[in-house]
Amino acid sequence: MKGKIKIVYRVILIITLFLAIFFLPRVAYDYSPAFFMITMMMTFIRILLIFVLLIELTRFINDYIIKRKLPNWLKNITSMVYVLVIIFMVFEGIFMFVPRSHHAGIPLCSKIWFFKYWKPINSYGFRDKEVIPDKKDNIYVVGDSYTAGHGLKHYGSRFSNLLDHDLSSQNNDVQVINLGVNGADTKEEFNVAMQFSKDSGTKPSLIILQYFGNDIDRVAKTNGVQFFGFEAYADVPSYIKQVVQSSYFLNYMYWVLPHGDANSYIAFLKESYNNEEVLNKHLLDLNLFIDYAREDSVPLLVVVFPFMQDIPFSEELYIGKITDYLEQQQIDYIDVSTLVEDLSVSDRVINNNDTHPSEIVNRRVADEIENYLQTKQIF
Description:
By secondary structure, the protein is an alpha/beta fold. The protein has helices at residues 2-23, 33-66, 72-95, 108-117, 145-148, 159-170, 186-200, 217-222, 238-246, 248-255, 263-273, 276-295, 311-328, 337-340, 345-348, 359-376, and strands at residues 137-143, 174-180, 204-211, 300-304, 332-335, 349-351, 354-357. A hairpin with a 2-residue loop joins strand 6 (349-351) and strand 7 (354-357). The termini are far apart.
């Protein structure tokens, strides 16, 4: 009787360890020192649990399978399962440290990517070097994740920092300040720029506004266009979905290939840009920058990015509408589509799950902005 109780106890222990490993709370990325310590602690605990599980599993197989007089076929099957579990848990431990970015930050490997690469964070909360307060000319680069450098491992690879390097080497009075915020729309970007100007005591000598097709999001949602979120794991059976979501190894393997999780979002954008009322209200947000630039005599340049994986679709969906409006308002702009259309899709994007612009695209955008500044004789 005691032997049976002991077996049940060992089985329950092993199952509990499995569940603890796969359902241990996962920490989303943040930028604080406290988050760093929490993440390191959770990582240590998970590795420790994997190690203990392997020990307990080995002891269980040895005590209740190998040493017992059981049929050889049962021992062989058990040994095979044991080896597979060992291999799986080893890969699980390895993939806890494998980063890979994703356009919406859904996979676990994307959380790891942010934890590893989303730095430095300056005193104003932006992913950039510290601002030098006494520079004569400050170029504000305002935008969303395309400006913040989502998917770029080093912040110096962004078009803003490439431009800063080129300009500051020619003129020490100029600095380029990156004010990119992931997920920000046009109105939020304006508020960010104004708040930064107030907090830092600096004034922009030039504003470079980066535009992308998701800038219409907030206006569309507040005016009745419905979007229920990205359809993550929609093609995974419900009985294994939680395991795929929780396992670093399985989660990575799942997200290696695209899964159409953004299809509902594309439909949302189509409805938004084709809704005249929504579009007109969105253009009012764009006017915040235009009016500020005119009132304070600050040059404004808008850099319009397409969907890197589908430039013709981008032109039809929103680029034509936005650039036509900018021309009506006599605002200078750069259509990035024309700069990258000769590149293959794989050269334009970070990876097949992250369609943010690659280092090559950022370099071309920086060069084009520099050409614009030279042509206009700014700085």
